[in-house]
Hints:
- The chain is of the alpha/beta class.
- It is built from 18 helices and 13 strands.
- α2 (about 30-45) runs parallel beside α4.
- Helix content is about 45%, strand content about 15%.
- Uracil binds near residues 99, 188, 193 and 194.
- Uracil binds near residues 98 and 188.
Amino acid sequence: MAQARVGKxxxxxxxxxxxxxxRKRDHGRLAPAEVAHLVDGYTAGKVADYQMSAWLMASLLxxxxxxxxxxxxxxxxxxxxxxxxxxVRQPKVDKHSTGGVGDKVSLCLGPLVASxxxxxxxxxxxxxxxxxxxxxxxxxxxxxxxxxxxxxxxxVVAAVGVSIIGQTAELAPADRRIYALRDVTGxxxxxxxxxxxxxxxxxxxxIDALLLDVKVGRGAFMKDLASARLLGRTLARVGRRFGxxxxxxxxxxxxxxxRTIGNALEAREAIAVLHNEGPDDTRELTLxxxxxxxxxxxxxxxxxxxxxxxxxxxxxxxAFECFARMVRAHGGNTRVIEHPELLPRAPVRVAVPAxxxxxxxxxxxxxxxxxxxxxxxxxxxAEDKVDPAAGIELCVKPGDRVAKGEPMAWLCVRRRSKAxxxxxxxxxxxxxxxxxxxxxxxxxGAIAR
Length: 449
Ligand code: URA
């Protein structure tokens, strides 16, 4: 059965786009049928980009209430197909991160959770602004096809337990188009618009439950805990209106996650985590989110038992095995993941030396994300191609001792001239102080289902 529509009334005549823009501009509210009319009109090409942009800006400035947010989510969800994944027998749980720097967790987490008996149908995105994208990381693996159609996606989820693909034209196409507009009209940072964007594409996957990793800090869209908590709560509340179990964790994105930023570099680090190695923060976040997904999927009833189960799956190699099966099912070359040294590698590495000795107090995720994009790891224009080998390797993490002249980071590039303009900017992203800073917690809060 298709996803139930929430609060739909479409009989009364609906005002045109201009009236709806003016109403929102003047702090009015739209009925669910009016929101649906706008989104349907936009998807059908009857509402112009500039009209949708104006409405989005009015919504960002004046807000959408919960009923408007639910209506927007629903209209975007039903702008395309809503999968049911009937052939998948296991509970189906996905995770979505609101976007960070160095966040390669999806690559390890999907296979980890699937190896514990909970299916993970995951529709992911590409890099956006300064944040990286799971699809770009997976495509660093030779042959990995992120563009499976809905039938093959379902077959892979049923056979392997996990599949990670990109948003197709079939799934929530309104989100794809509206997101592209928001990206270039300064309308990303709005809680209701983010909620509708995330939930519409995630609900289209046919999941039973969703875990949200709401990033907080310099490198995140939500810069402070209060706004992250508001986003997490709204996501959970609106998600439940669609009959899904939804919980959220608020996690630190003040500094990058792990020790690498850039697609092949991050794929290599994710593979290390799947071998029960890799940086502590990345491994810890993978295990923490994995345990919460087992709870959401009903595979365990307590967090401690769920945690032990994901630890065992990582240590036994079951999670890596599952990753290898997923890569094979997507046409990827599994030799590359068995020998990660075969992943694309930048021919030139340029050191960023520490200007003085001391302790690393801060490492600005936003700045490092922006530099990584300019080195070629992300896109400045939607049509840009990413360089899978480009990126940044971090030699130090907050709390580490640094010695003057020793590298704090390596810029990985095709040629030295690509790195030179960014050496000073990268160095300025590191703050060195005389005293070791207190350790920052990785998980800052949780909003339970
Ligand atoms: N991620 C999304 O998918 N949508 C947003 O609006 C923001 C982050």
